[in-house]
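ok new one. same drill as before - structure tokens go in, u give me an amino acid for every spot. 236 of them this time. try not to just spam alanines like last time pls lmao
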């Protein structure tokens, strides 16, 4: 079991990453306050495979989300597909066999344990809360219940935030939280039209090209939208 503790500036994992490392979104803060974790993020998904990170507690949380988006593997995808919590108390012991590439990146960030909790509206899984810890260990029954309760309490606000963000071109970029904003959806639509494929397949092509070229998904999307990159010119 992970022991609860209060982090100080001296022991916070992300203290040396960026000045924005101490920034917190209100959606993420309860998880950091009530659970023995070091980072938190909240992501909302739509039916076309689009993802929006509506909250990231710090750059490490943001990068964990970005890695999973780029690679198509990681605890948030497993939680989304299974509609069940994914608990990995030791990435060294379990991560490599489940998500080999993602695990390498996560460990390089100083992450040793990961937990993902699906969010529901009715029977539909609409998002995932991603938590990480800088030391190995599991969550006890009381902590698991707390995580589920907190995830339930923020679900509707998270979805509303994502919807407002998607339809408002002037929405300010959320600090330290890369997201599937309008440009990424536009790029997916352009690839869909270029290759005559589904939205899900178009996004998969976008993500695969980003990984193959060592670029972020957002960078590739921008190239598509500005017409610097046409997927019809790429080998299939």
């Amino acid at each position: 079991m992970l022991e609860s503790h209060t982090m100080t500036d001296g022991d916070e994992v992300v203290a040396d990453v960026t000045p924005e490392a101490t920034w917190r979104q209100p959606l993420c803060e309860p998880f950091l306050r009530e659970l023995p974790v070091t980072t938190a993020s909240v992501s909302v998904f739509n039916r076309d495979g689009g993802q929006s990170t509506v909250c990231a507690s710090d750059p490490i949380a943001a990068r964990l989300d970005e890695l999973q988006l780029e690679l198509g593997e990681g605890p948030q995808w497993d939680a989304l597909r299974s509609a069940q919590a994914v608990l990995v108390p030791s990435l060294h012991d379990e991560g490599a066999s489940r998500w080999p590439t993602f695990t390498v990146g996560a460990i390089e960030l100083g992450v040793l344990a990961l937990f993902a909790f699906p969010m529901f509206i009715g029977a539909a899984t609409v998002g995932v809360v991603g938590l990480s810890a800088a030391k190995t260990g599991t969550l006890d029954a009381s902590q698991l219940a707390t995580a589920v309760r907190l995830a339930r309490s923020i679900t509707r606000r998270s979805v509303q935030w994502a919807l407002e963000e998607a339809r408002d071109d002037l929405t300010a970029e959320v600090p330290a939280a890369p997201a599937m904003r309008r440009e990424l959806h536009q790029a997916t639509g352009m690839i869909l039209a270029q290759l005559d494929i589904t939205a899900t397949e178009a996004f998969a092509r976008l993500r695969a090209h980003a990984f193959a070229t060592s670029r972020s998904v957002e960078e590739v999307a921008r190239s598509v939208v500005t017409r610097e990159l046409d997927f019809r010119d790429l080998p299939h």
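The beta strands are 39-45, 51-56, 86-88, 113-121, 124-133. and btw The chain has two domains: 19-167, 182-233.
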